[in-house]
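// run 5 | inverse folding | seed 20
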């Protein structure tokens, strides 16, 4: 938006025209930013969920291994 205003000042355009162009540009880049943010959010969620599931699986395997070792020790 700032660049559009600077360009308008540089070319001596009317303030109303510059404002409408700047608002239009702001809306376009808002859409681009929203889309990029949504994609980044999805990628981060998937990554965190994957790490969480791996950690839970590792923990469950460790608990099962410990339980089986304790059972073996008690039967001896």
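// decoded
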């Amino acid at each position: 938006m700032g660049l559009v205003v600077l360009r308008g000042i540089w070319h001596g355009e009317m303030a109303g025209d510059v404002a409408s162009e700047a608002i239009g540009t702001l809306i376009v880049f808002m859409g681009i930013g929203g889309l990029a943010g949504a994609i980044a959010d999805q990628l981060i969620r998937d990554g965190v969920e994957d790490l969480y599931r791996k950690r839970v699986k590792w923990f469950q395997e460790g608990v099962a291994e410990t339980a089986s070792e304790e059972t073996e020790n008690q039967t001896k």
